[in-house]
Amino acid sequence: MLFLYLAWYLLSPLFIDKVVSEESPFVESRSVSSGSFMDADSSHKVSGVANVISDNENYLLRFEDFESTNGPDLKVYLSEDLDANSYVSLGVLKGNIGNQNYEIPPGTDLNKYKYALIWCERFSVLFGSAELSLQ
């Protein structure tokens, strides 16, 4: 019986979609950089657009038309590379479908981090990435 509970805990995120629909918290904003998500491989699918936006004081990473294969322990990173060797964690992925916002910590060098990653921390697996091009 313990095996069934453990299996459900580990595998259920793969089959359950979590839909998010967040508006941008900024009344007025400008786009700093953006890029389209690409799949990491045939098993890990991600689509949509990643935008870094600013109200001239704060910065957000905003996902629009976002959709991802679900998985356990998915996080959002700003990273220097696709292997997450050097990154800033923006937190837990809020949902695998829908528009969502992630606050970028003050002082983050946006010229240094050129990728938005959907990363499974538990298994160190890339689900998808967006290369962010400065506007």
Descriptive tags:
single chain, 135 residues, mainly beta, Immunoglobulin-like, nine-stranded antiparallel β-sheet, globular
Textual characterization of the structure:
The protein is mainly β. It has a single domain, classed as Immunoglobulin-like (Sandwich). The protein has one helix and nine strands, in the order αβββββββββ. The protein has one helix at residues 2-11, and strands spanning 30-39, 46-54, 59-68, 74-79, 87-92, 100-104, 115-120, 125-131, 133-134. Strands 1, 2, 3, 4, 5, 6, 7, 8 and 9 form a nine-stranded antiparallel β-sheet that branches. It is globular and about 55 Å long. The relative contact order is 0.26.
Class based on secondary structure composition and strand pairing: mainly beta
The total tally of domains equals 1
Strand content: over 45%
Shape: globular
CATH level-two architecture: Sandwich
CATH topology: Immunoglobulin-like
Element pattern in H and E: HEEEEEEEEE
- CATH C-level label: Mainly Beta
Low-confidence stretches: none
What's this entry about, in short?
The protein is mainly beta. It has one helix and nine strands, in the order αβββββββββ.
Structural topology:
Blueprint: H1 2-11, E1 30-39, E2 46-54, E3 59-68, E4 74-79, E5 87-92, E6 100-104, E7 115-120, E8 125-131, E9 133-134
Antiparallel strand pairs: 1-2, 1-8, 1-9, 2-3, 3-6, 4-5, 4-7, 7-8
